[in-house]
Design brief:
By secondary structure, the chain is mainly β. It is 8% helix and 57% strand. It contains 6 helices and 37 strands. The strands form 7 sheets. It has a 22-stranded antiparallel barrel. A 5-stranded mixed beta sheet has the order 3-8-9-6-7. A two-stranded antiparallel ribbon has the order 1-2. The protein is globular. The N and C termini lie far apart (65 Å).
């Protein structure tokens, strides 16, 4: 078995080595680095293209800004996230289906989701449903794997194996003191989705923005799927959604060096949970009601070029109700959780090129439910992160040490033990050729996730003696960006090989009478992520862009050598997956083609044919055009998704919608 393990590892490292050598050849031929002044493109003067974070970072970083999102034609956060390599999106289908993000097979609980720099917490399940967030009000999406090079951040950001950061749009005032954007989306399955964004500038130092959105859809699409050897045809039911989102922001520049941002957020939804299609029965009657409100503020003081401080505070209230009309009788369960979060980060650069930061976070969580014998748990978390970074024209080194202390209380029963741990992280980037944009990078991060309240205290399956899941992440890669002579105006490439270990994995196992959450799992994951972006200027006002992402992921259960699951691929983790897109911009209409595909997966830990989920590819096309007249802008977009029309399954027995269409009209002033 040792030889088997080593041979699999060698394949990944040989592939990385080959790609690094190929990039080295490109770097040697790089005549016009993007770091150099202005570039000439076929008679056009183009302002210097700043190296993307994915190229400069010591750990893998992938970013999509608003311009790229608009060019790609994607309309939902989940559709955009699928274009990141290393991501497994769990989608239960339909407009209102829950959508969670797992990175490099670690699970959704290991992925932090940040909204304008402040983490979205969920102490109950530990995972965030990204369908809650609208793409209409988003300025950028960033996925960071491992430890970010940005040491001027919260300690909570350091406490996750990966992080998806959602940044919302800030007001952009030109020759007037207000801006307005109204959008309407409609499409298949009764979709109606109007939204409105308004911003006002009161003075040169004070402005505000308001955003509101309504979403509804019936979601009752037709589907065809196989249940073992028998084809099933039917119509999805109980897949409707009605949701409201609202957000208010206040931006205050107190002085030239001090800023204060205040945000209020509201999300209210009522949706049906369509359930799985088993035994030819697509019937479902479970309903989920969500209410989520939070308020947060951010303050920053830039004392000088060598000292700065930022602090944030947040209070989050989340309530949901789950009802179901079961054969044994109707049920209704209610859950309420709150979170209070405070953080402060001090950054200093005492000498040139050497900087330090100290971040301190405090989090309080509590949970109450209507379930019998609810233990009413409370959690107090203290996170302290000390980071250092040295920058040199040829290399950069970043290191951090996170101290975690967690204590819990319960009204009934036994509380989990206190947890104390030091978690180190380090990353290195090296630029072998000074005048080229080729870099080598390596990173390591040791982190863990605390069991959720569901893991610890949920009815009979909860286990208050659970230990945290411990994760160790190694990454080595290479990046390059620049012009390729006459081949392309701009190319960006990154290739990363990685190896992850997860100990004390938390899983549900059967005991004598009931299932129980236990620390019994160990997982090894190794793989390769590759990202490519290229741009061409074909003629005046004619441009072509291309993106491609590929992931190879071998995630194996190595809990017990004598087990039937030894070296089996873990559930819902494809070995091969990827995404790509082409964008053609013309003087008349712009066209975008996107594809997201996934190889075969298994729905259960045992890798046998009856558990196999077929591979799928989701193709979509967008046509859009921007009209401008006297300061007014009108954008028209038409989308056709899942062109193949197949009801593929991301989650077994949850068929996705077939071919569907959307139309979006945006007016801005």
């Amino acid at each position: 078995m040792g030889v088997y393990k080593e041979s699999h590892k060698m394949r990944g490292w040989l592939l990385v080595s080959f790609c690094m050598e190929a990039v080295f050849v490109l770097a040697q031929n790089d005549a016009d680095s993007v770091d150099v002044g202005l570039q000439q493109m076929k008679g056009l003067t183009v302002t210097e293209k700043v190296l993307p974070a994915a190229v400069r970072s010591g750990a893998p970083v992938q970013t999509l800004d608003k311009a790229e999102l608009e060019r790609m034609g994607v309309l939902d956060v989940s559709d955009a996230v699928r274009h990141f390599s290393g991501v497994t999106l769990k989608d239960y289908g339909g407009v209102g289906g829950l959508k969670t993000v797992s990175v490099r097979s670690l699970g959704a609980q290991h992925t932090a989701v940040l909204y304008d720099g402040v983490a979205i917490g969920d102490c109950q399940s530990g995972q965030v449903d990204i369908s809650r967030f609208s793409l209409d009000n988003v300025s950028s999406l960033t996925l960071t794997i491992g430890q970010s090079d940005n040491i001027y951040q919260t300690a909570r950001m350091s406490a996750a194996a990966s992080a998806l950061s959602i940044e919302t749009s800030r007001p952009d005032f030109e020759d007037r003191d207000f801006s307005l954007s109204a959008k309407v989306k409609t499409g298949s399955y009764g979709l109606a989705n109007p939204s409105l964004f308004y911003a006002h500038r009161f003075t040169s130092r004070l402005s505000c923005s308001l955003y509101g959105e309504y979403l509804r859809a019936d979601g009752n699409y037709y589907f065809t799927m196989m249940n073992l050897t028998k084809p099933i045809e039917g119509r999805r039911n109980n897949s409707d959604i009605g949701a409201y989102r609202a957000e208010v922001n206040l931006f205050a520049r107190l002085t030239e060096r001090q800023d204060l941002d205040v945000k209020g957020y509201l999300f209210d939804s009522r949706r049906g949970l369509p359930g799985s299609v088993v035994y030819d029965n697509p019937y479902a009657a479970e309903r989920l009601y969500d209410r989520n409100y939070f308020g947060q503020l951010r303050y920053e003081n830039r004392f000088s070029e060598k000292w700065k401080l930022k602090a944030s505070g947040k209070f989050n209230y989340s309530w949901n109700k789950d009802t179901d009309k079961k054969a044994a009788g109707p049920t209704e369960d209610r859950f309420r959780q709150t979170e209070t979060y405070l953080t402060a980060t001090l950054w200093a650069m005492p000498v040139k090129n050497l900087s330090f930061s100290l971040a301190q976070d405090f989090v309080y969580n509590d949970l109450a439910t209507t379930l019998e014998e609810c233990q009413y748990p409370e959690r107090y978390t203290s996170l302290t992160a000390f980071s250092a970074q040295y920058r040199h024209p040829l290399f950069q080194v970043t290191a951090s040490l996170l101290n975690t202390f967690i204590t819990e209380r319960v009204a009934l029963g036994r509380a989990a033990d206190d947890r104390k741990r030091l978690s180190p992280a380090v990353s290195l980037t090296w630029r072998p050729v000074k005048k080229a944009s080729w870099r080598l990078r390596a990173s390591y991060k040791d982190i863990f996730r605390v069991p959720t309240f569901n893991d610890l205290y949920y009815l009979l399956i909860g286990n208050s003696r659970l230990r945290p899941e411990k994760t160790r992440q190694w990454n080595v890669g290479t990046t390059w960006a620049g012009r390729m002579g006459r081949v392309a105006d701009y190319v960006s490439l990154s290739v990363d090989g990685y190896y992850n270990e997860v100990d004390d994995k938390i899983v549900a196992v059967p005991t004598m009478f009931v299932w129980k959450m236990s620390n019994v799992g160990k997982v090894e994951t190794y793989g390769v992520d590759a990202n490519l972006a290229a741009e061409w200027t074909l003629a005046k006002a004619w441009n072509l862009g291309m993106t491609a992402a590929y992931s190879f992921m071998q995630a194996e259960d190595v809990t017990k050598r004598s087990s039937k699951l030894w070296r089996h691929q873990i559930a819902y983790t494809p070995k091969h997956s990827g995404a790509g897109g082409l964008v053609l911009e013309t003087p008349w209409v712009n066209a975008a083609y996107n594809v997201a595909w996934s190889g075969e997966r298994y729905r259960l830990p045992q890798n046998k044919e009856s558990n196999l989920i077929d591979a799928y590819a989701d193709h979509s096309v967008s046509l859009y055009r921007m009209f401008r007249f006297k300061g007014h802008k009108l954008r028209l977009q038409v989308d056709a998704a899942n062109l193949g029309g197949k009801n593929y399954e991301v989650v077994r027995y949850y068929p996705m919608p077939g071919r569907n269409f959307k139309v979006a009209i945006t007016y801005s002033l």
